[in-house]
């Protein structure tokens, strides 16, 4: 964890008893410094009520609890203004990191930037020990229940569990029956949602057993809060989170069965469309797992393989972030494209381990809650440590009668929900229902009593929440995470069998604490929406420092570079193309804006028609937008230019191109450095902040375009200087070279499209949009001629903007692409690059620019057309030979040329949405 340099406004941490002076009502009257100086704007003012809120902040005599005392004094020493400043800094950090929930939905209104409350939630050491024990016990208990349900089903045969809970439950997957044979499928990653209610008891309000989300957000919360409140961590005994993730990593290694070498562990994600994709990227990078999507995996002979550029690589462990039924479309009948066909058979054959075990969604059933105390004594020989929120399952006669009588009693209220957590059955509060609707509900419950559960409304405790520069009361739900590390263990042969004592559960000494601003909320849904708090678990011992590093008995094989999944290579290539495409468009638009903001009239600018034709050739504007010299209208051109920049409905607009950059970058976020992602975030922020004034729209647009070009150049510079020259960098650079070559060819074709000789103003404009003005004038001073300009932009391999430079770079890249075996002959893509590069190197510039009898440059025109078609063919062959062909929707359309297949590359034209 990183921390800020010492802040002159930050006072040393004090825990002196005299810091808080008690007044009537057990509230804090005033906060003082060690020198008895009263703090002008304490975070916790004397008027803020903290007594009677069951939050455990104050003791019965009105003094702060020991675990709250240091937090209160530290925050009060900062004051409101300083805490607000640091909170704004935290928001900036989260924006730079791209922390968001539901970030990549198509509807921008659904985007939810992650919110972090600067007021942490401290947990006393004694409380933490009790919670840790209870969560660990529950993890072992659920693992035993899962093993029996999908194994011998002794609990059902002996009437310890009713069959309706499972055989009528859509989350019970019959295809997983006997999937794990006699083994205990340990829950390697389990989440428990807890809430503290008005009786001062932490109760369980939900379980997450399929693919629990939130651990990555909790870790990010800790990183950010440690940056804005560093002294608290330096002075307090807050337990670290890294040891938990290290134990979790070990648990996944153990189920692989490999002891001497590091197993191949992948994290299976649904991709950027997932609402928690940030967490997938963050955890995979933090734990060193390969982040994959379903299309990256294939099953051959009951073995799961990762599809890479070098071939198929076997996978040992899959940490899934998908629901049970989305994992294998062949078995679970999933009609979508998600899932890995054949995965269940590979698990059944013992060739791959999946965490959490398939079918574990059955344990999220709310109707299971009333049976847990008895099952805990039966399976573990222990009493249940953590109580659940009181739940009635209507499948039991007594519970059914109680629920039916209470929902019709105006003096009582019940919260009715699905017994199987089915989204089709909404959660209803009888207090908000009319008598007619209550009668209908009662009829539904009588018809299918096993499908409903009921809870009495309970008031949660209120905790201090920071909102708009001051404190308000809010309720919290705390999600604790646990991991089971198996050092041995036996099979469950009956409900009397107790789990092996060698099974050790590690609980993360922290939590994802979600905040509800409404302190009176009665139901706590298990979602990640809303704000969050960092949870500080204190210890009476010494906080040890641990890392994620692991050692194996077998030495690692030294190698340079790394293999790359085909999908990642595909996206890296498109990322390079979109970035380069956007930069080229910006350079042409900047040249037009420069002339619009000049003092010269447009109708006398001889180079202006060429720039407009270039914009049309690049499909920035439509082909129709090229007004004659006597028909220029400043208002029309200004409107068109602004639409080229900001019209989201126009495929060729800059904002559409930047959207494509962000979308493709999100797909390979785990491969990009933090600095590269910051640059992309800055790019997005620059577009969002554009708010031109009425009388200076074009001038402000020009300033924005200048900033955007610098940002795009910064991204390219980071790739050049920071990325290793492995396959990821090569494919991204190939995308840039393909697009830059096409860009330059399009400019040259536009310049020489007319029969007349290009004038000096047009040549100067060409050098400007080609970013080669200084290079040309350094060589040839102020003389403008066609031959040296064509040589500089077409043939010169020393000029990074020239077509010859791009072809030489592409030739080098293509030669290093992996092959399945030694090749006796060159591949098709090698032949294409060799042909195009050789032609450019053998050309005589004077012969190339010789005119025929009609005054036409036939040789130059034919060469440019040949280069254009050759680059399109080269991109197609690279895609067919190396890249994933599944669900490819990335395309740079060309409205002026015949359409190509959806999966093919078309180099010129506007980028459509990914």
TrEMBL record:
Biased composition (Polar residues): 20-29
Annotated ranges, domain DUF403: 564-883
Pfam families given in the database record: Alpha-E, CP_ATPgrasp_2
The Circularly permuted ATP-grasp type domain, residue ranges: 120-516
Region (Disordered): 1-30
Segments forming a coiled coil: none
Name of protein: Uncharacterized protein
